[in-house]
Fold this protein.
Amino acid sequence: MGKITATCGKKYFQEIFWRLCIFFHKFAGRMKYITLPDSLKGDTHLSFYLAMEEYVARHIDEPDCFFMWQVGPTVIFGRNQVMQNEVNTEYCRQHGIEMFRRKSGGGCVYADKDNIMLSYITKSDNVPFTFNRFMTMLIFVLQKLGVQAVGTTHNDVMIGDRKVCGTAFYQLPGRSIVHSTMLYDTNMEHMLNSITPSADKLQKKGIESVRQRITFLKDYISLNIVEVKAFIRQTLCDGELQLTDADVVGIRKIEQEFLDKKFILRM
């Protein structure tokens, strides 16, 4: 399983893609863009946005919600991963890179201000459908930007044979949360040194380095990162829902779980 590269596979993917695009156009107006109150100023940690996803899922009565965010240098690893096996903790501490565990599965990711983090919350509890819809939205946006992006069976978005966007997923009662890291650009030194993929993993993929299997969106478009975020929002959302200060208090309460060392270290 991997990229859909065979001719018949490409035709099948294109057929599914355009059918989903039709569905997307029909229902896109239901998706609300979630914003924070003006009172919340300054940089916010990744733990806050993970808690914000969960708060929106539990308390905002909209069928489909979406928001984007950016964070300072941070490593985020999956719910089942052993931190010490995936993260170069010494390097992270030396360079002020924060480390957090998320509740979704998947691998370890480095993020910074040059990435665009995307969060999608929906009432659908159909896992394949939810993933397909989110992937379709991402690919649709990139195609509109003139980028020849495709999806994979591992729920990654590729440009050519290189990954530009990865996704992860988890469920709450009656809700699904999908989040994604889009590589507009990044600090390659931090990415290469903060994450420690095993030699076996690299050998299996036939890859000599992380840099050889990723690409940056900035190399394919003329828009800056602010313009890309505005384009994504304009393309995918119809309407805005601004959270209140009381909502932020609720988010902060959920955030405490993501800040708990027992949760981060799985003690």
Q: What stands out?
A: Residues 7-27 form the longest helix (21 residues). The longest strand covers residues 162-172.
